[in-house]
Amino acid sequence: MRRLEGKVTIVTGATMGIGRAVAKAFAAEGAWVIAADIADQDRPGDQKIETRRLDVADEEAWASLAEEVMRRYGRVDVLVNAAGVIGYEPIHELTTAQWQRVLDVDQTGVYLGMRAVLPAMRERRAGSIINLSSAWGVVGGVGVAAYNAAKGAVGSMSRNAAVTYAREGIRVNAVVPGWIRTPLTDRQPADANERVIGATPAGHGGEPEDIAAGCVYLAGDDARFVTGTELVIDGGFLAV
Amino acid sequence: MTRLTGKVAIVTGASRGIGAGIATAMAAEGATVIGCDVLGFSAPALAATEALDVTDEDAWAQVVAKVLERTGRLDVLVNNAGITSPESVHESRLEEWRRVVSVNQTGVFFGMRAAIPAMEAGGGGAIINISSICGAAAVPGIAAYHAAKGAVRTMTKNAAITYARQGIRANAILPGWIQTPMTAGQSADVNDRFLDATPLGRPGTPSDVAGAAVFLASDESAFITGVDLPVDGGYLAA
Ligand SMILES: NC(=O)c1ccc[n+]([C@@H]2O[C@H](COP(=O)([O-])OP(=O)(O)OC[C@H]3O[C@@H](n4cnc5c(N)ncnc54)[C@H](O)[C@@H]3O)[C@@H](O)[C@H]2O)c1
Ligand SMILES: NC(=O)c1ccc[n+]([C@@H]2O[C@H](COP(=O)([O-])OP(=O)(O)OC[C@H]3O[C@@H](n4cnc5c(N)ncnc54)[C@H](O)[C@@H]3O)[C@@H](O)[C@H]2O)c1
To answer: According to its UniProt record, which protein family does this protein belong to (chain B) (predicted)?
Structure first.
């Protein structure tokens, strides 16, 4: 039995990494997936996935995407905000422009995404929103000042939206990945990756599919009583 | 009353409310306090007051330069200035969202960025960022405020571990419902909801928060960094 049969889902950051794995896992569970990304995407080769160009920091682009999805499907059941960028600078080296860029995508982008789909979800009194936070949304990392700030905001924004819209049947949760093998972590220096993996009790990093599985759970009816929480998928990193 | 003798402290949002409480308490403990606010004000107990909009990065550089010129050091920074806005996600405007984030979150970044080199040069320092119970738990509405206060908690932990070896400590205070002009401006409904959920059964006062700030600024807390200290009458424990 497929767990997300017919659910209309918008996934951001779907070109690669975690967002791409989420899009595939959702389609395999029967969802209709609108895979949105600022970067070009391959043809998905899956008729349940259609791709769209979206800069999550652009409020007008969000409005037109939501409008198009409503016109074509008449509903939005699930939003997965997976688009993200990282910056490594510590505070004393961080320029205001670098700070702003990370906040625009990782924080304002999540706000704009939620705002764009809420009217549709409120109308049907149903919906599930899943925001990608990070272990750096819970504890501090060395450097990564803007990323740390934005991911902390995502955790508390998710709780806020959860309690604000709980009576309207809309659930909002954050997923907190530890170290996951994606183009994002591939670009990091090997010693930085080794340090985080070394601090992971499981002894290895995770795969995008590990995060996608958590998102499938949160999107589906198995999680009908789950809202305002953070689902940690990190090989034990935060438990020590 | 000498727990902060010899320390130079900048307190933002010091003209009233929690910031005024912290600035006067620190001065009473012997600190040289520079109270900053976007509103003009005078406070005889403080060493100086400065006009500062925390969202203005150049103004931050000037204030820190002035403090260094006058006292030669900077030991304590309290990022307290803050604003709120009632809007929920679905009804909020991007401009209003940006306004709250720029004061409550970017203002804290600018403050830390301006102060850290001076603290490092002086061998260390204490940063105290005022987050909120809304950075840890949620109430309906005030969406941008939640985002920014959550960011302040992780930004504080980030600064704590990034600058620990430079002798700089960074901690967050999470006030619960405190009687100030900010809460006086909120609807009675919202205020009642907070009070009902406060186990101690009374509102907090600026001096309740100031007690925590003095502790975190002083050498009594020399081994404390990267923590959240709720001053909330038990709100988060319930
Ligand atoms: N990989 C990890 O270890 C890890 C850990 C914790 C959290 N995360 C979070 O998970 C999410 C996905 O990360 P990932 O590792 O797959 O990253 P990635 O870099 O591999 O992929 C991110 C995707 O987001 C897209 N994107 C970037 N900016 C965008 C914008 N403005 N609008 C639309 N799309 C945009 C990129 O084009 C890319 O396809 C991010 O939010 C990231 O912060 C990742
Ligand atoms: N009162 C509460 O219940 C409560 C609870 C949790 C957290 N807080 C936080 O405590 C801090 C102080 O709150 P308060 O209740 O004393 O508020 P308040 O409104 O009474 O005082 C805030 C002060 O900050 C100043 N300010 C505002 N914008 C500024 C800017 N751009 N630059 C410089 N100064 C600026 C104001 O002029 C004012 O003097 C805020 O960060 C607030 O979010 C308050």
So the answer is: Belongs to the short-chain dehydrogenases/reductases (SDR) family.
Whose C-alpha lies nearest to ligand 2, atom 18?
A: B182
Ligand nearest to the CA of B12: 2
B142 interaction partners in chain A (CB closer than 8 Å): 160
In angstroms, the CA B170 to CA A47 distance is 51
Q: Which residue has its alpha carbon closest to ligand 1 atom 1?
A: A180
pLDDT tops 90 at residue A150: yes
At B137 the three-state DSSP class reads coil
Question: Which backbone phi and psi does A83 adopt, to 5 degrees?
Answer: -60, 140
From the list B156, B163, B197, the residue with the least C-alpha distance to B177 is: B197
Asked whether A56 lines ligand 1 (CB < 6 A), one says yes
pLDDT at A43 over 90: no
- Are A140 and B160 within 8 A, CB to CB? yes
What does DSSP assign to residue B164? G
Q: Taking 80 as the threshold, does the pLDDT of residue A35 lie above it?
A: yes
pTM of the full structure: 0.93
Give me the residues of A, 47-66, that contact B with CB < 8 A: 59
B143-162 and A145-165 helices cross at what angle (nearest 10)? 150
Picking from B104, B27, B119, B108, the residue whose alpha carbon sits closest to that of residue B64 is B119
Tokens at A55, concatenated:
């800069």
CB of B103 closer than 8 Å to CB of B85: no
Is residue B136 less than 8 Å (CB to CB) from chain A?
yes
- The total of other beta-carbon atoms located within 10 Å of residue B119's CB is 23
Interface check B143 vs A, CB under 8 A: yes
Tell the residue number behind the tokens 């509102």, with chain if given.
B203
The answer to whether A22 and A11 have CB atoms below 8 angstroms apart is yes
Tell me: the pLDDT tens digits for A77-95?
999 999 999 999 999 999 9
CA distances from B114 to B18, B105, B208 (A): 22, 14, 28
